[in-house]
Amino acid sequence: MADIFCKKDALQLLQNRFILIIGDSNTRALYNDLIYLLHENDVTSPAVFRKHSNKNVKVKEVDKVVKQNDVRNATRNLQEIREYWGANGVRVRFCFVTRVMGQQMLWQLNEMERGDIPCPDIILLNSCVWDITRWGAMMEDTYKQQLVQVFTRLRQLVHPDTLVMWATTLPVAENLVRGGLLIKQLDFIQKNIRFMALEANLFVSELCKLFCFDIVDLHYHMRFQLSR
Predict the structure, then answer these.
(1) CA 13, CA 7: separation in Å to the nearest integer?
(2) What is 7-221's CATH topology?
(3) CA 163/CA 153 separation, integer angstroms
(4) Its domain of life (predicted)?
(5) Which region, left, alpha or beta, applies to residue 94 given φ > 0 means left and ψ of -120 to 50 means alpha?
């Protein structure tokens, strides 16, 4: 049984905290849910998830777009940074990435290094499926190298008491991958993604131990939900 949190619980736990969430559309969904909880005392409705984030009727009333390019033409170079300021001094920022050490991630890390944004109290990260499907033939080796680079940079930038968490990649159903991720030319890779994701999760879990970062094992908790 999962713990159930209400709006007042979340506001109390996250009082005067800055939470930075970085990842793909699944990670964006976590950001949306957190915003709905903090503002509406609810979770995001399925109807909202069927739309792109910049069309979320309720969310866009309370969060703002910091940076965004043309979604229709962006593909793997999509840029999207959103931010929410709530009650009790809670601040939540989301940065969309399609590569663990791509331009989007570098821009966010450089902002932290320059002091344009404060060092977050909590950082939640994920990047995997885009990395291993859309960035070339040596994508898996490059992904591992870039994970080490990001973790090293984060360890240098964040305060010792910053909570850094990596969310493992969700299980991928064999024939249910859809949306903007897999283009027609990559249909052949669809059956392999679930195994590649497992390998990636194993690698990053060992890396987190070395860097003393935490793991949120979404893959484990959702492994029996492939039908969804």
Answers:
(1) 10
(2) Rossmann fold (3.40.50)
(3) 15
(4) Eukaryota
(5) beta
